[in-house]
């Protein structure tokens, strides 16, 4: 997969099947679009392209923190191996001020040589969000592309959306989050050095700081799985600031893995979060915390007696 950041760096004259959007989460609805593009590639021998807006510049301009289901880096990792090109387009003035008509003509047709365009029913684009599926359909004949509009995937009686997933993530409802994503909620990061207290208490933990633009579930203890050097380990971890042992306000994910005894420092790992167990607590003493963590560990081991990763 070619990763290209910035429209100006896309320089390929081959015809494409392209899907467009913000793609935060790459949830089941997004996957439908990506799969359509993959099928079009195989059928018509065109290049498959995911065009995703990078919304960070907009949040920076507005002075707001971005809270995404995934960081840009995680989005890139998750798309790896699915399409030929992942084009990430910073949402800057020159893009947001472009009319919808100009976006079709100059970007989709002019730069991307789109033969097939794949979007969801409510896709909006161009200045003032004036462009929609009707406009895309209107210009299809003139510009020689075919339009595919995919229906929304549902979760219960509500359409799956990044907004819906974020609502459930804020509540710690990992079952709904993971079902809507179509894969377990994932955090990628590098294992840091901590204060080496864990191993003295009998539960060493890998410590990972998530990307700052990442929305996390509420601080608390969660069943998780961690991939280190290509192998998955079951575990139980804490998302939060560990108030019992530090006054720092840095949110980390700390995970004790049941069948691991290697050295994971500085390794890039992937953490999947499965189920909320209890809120993070400030215990009166480290000893009291240790008792609770031991109970958490017993609970986690029991959880995985009947379930495998991903179930
Ligand atoms: C299953 C589990 C539950 C935890 N729960 C809490 C908690 O409720 N409150 C807290 O302050 N720290 C909690 N922690 C974090 C520990 O305080 C931390 O892992 C320990 O102090 C070791 O830190 P270190 O990696 O810096 O050595 C938990 C850790 C694990 C693995
Ligand atoms: N079962 C395990 N689960 C998590 N980390 C483990 C495990 N066994 C060994 N380790 C290693 O021990 C380190 C954690 O030990 P810990 O005493 O908590 O130190 P730190 O405070 O530096 O995180 C991890 O980063 C990892 O390299």
Automatic annotation (TrEMBL):
Gene Ontology molecular function, alphabetical: FMN adenylyltransferase activity; riboflavin kinase activity
Keywords: ATP-binding, FAD, Flavoprotein, FMN, Kinase, Multifunctional enzyme, Nucleotide-binding, Nucleotidyltransferase, Transferase
Catalytic activity: riboflavin + ATP = FMN + ADP + H(+); FMN + ATP + H(+) = FAD + diphosphate
Entry-linked SUPFAM superfamilies: Nucleotidylyl transferase (SSF52374), Riboflavin kinase-like (SSF82114)
Secretion signal, residue range per the UniProt entry: none
Keyword Ubl conjugation: no
Known EC number: 2.7.1.26, 2.7.7.2
Residue ranges occupied by any Riboflavin kinase domain in the UniProt entry: 180-305
Pathway it works in: Cofactor biosynthesis; FAD biosynthesis; FAD from FMN: step 1/1; Cofactor biosynthesis; FMN biosynthesis; FMN from riboflavin (ATP route): step 1/1
Gene3D superfamilies: HUPs, Riboflavin kinase-like
Enzyme class per UniProt: transferase
CDD domains named among the record's database cross-references: FAD_synthetase_N
Family note: Belongs to the ribF family.
Protein name: Riboflavin biosynthesis protein
Organism: Bariatricus massiliensis
